[in-house]
Amino acid sequence: MTYIVTPRSHLHIEEFFLRSIDLRSLDHISIEAQLFATRDQCRRYGEVLSREFGVSDAPDAHARGMVWNESEFRSLDIPEMVRQVRSVVSACRANDILVITYPKTTSEENLKHYFSGNYSEMADYKPHCRMPWIHAEITAKGDVAPCHSFYDLVFGNVNHQGILDVWNNERIQEVQEVHEEEPASDMYGLLPILRLQGGVSRDMSRRARRQHDRKADA
What we know:
- The chain is of the alpha/beta class.
- It contains 9 helices and 6 strands.
- The strands form 2 sheets. A 3-stranded parallel β-sheet has the order 1-2-3. It has a 3-stranded antiparallel β-sheet with strand order 4-5-6.
- The chain is globular and about 50 Å long.
């Protein structure tokens, strides 16, 4: 089960997990801060896609729907949000439930940096995104994209090529090269979601480890 933390939901985390549902019925949960892009990120996103890949309408497509002004998060009670997240994480671990938090570091300072758009100061800051090497997202139209939130940059389409052909084509190699060569600040423009990627906590519980081991032995 995934719970998205937004200005409207951030004070109801404990209520939902500890009083509204039977937590013991869940195998794992994910508590994730709302993903968003700043207007500046959206602008840089368009610049990088236009310059490197010839995509000219990205800022008016998927990216625009992700844009929030940092001022919209000023009403957040971050200390209380942190307390509630930690309370739920403790309850999950006591019941042997896998917990993922997004961003990984649940602290007042880290979340203040996140919701103010000050990503380079976050404990979970990653200069590059690993997704173009390990992940492909297939959209409803069959397009293959490197990011599950931004579909403007695609490698190919599975309706016209096999997935392995798409995965090994020149387009994806170009994306990987840009990731390696562009400054981290520009890479935030290319894939805004990378500010958290690689920082997700995957603290495997004893139950999850046993399930993993049983599958490996099967």
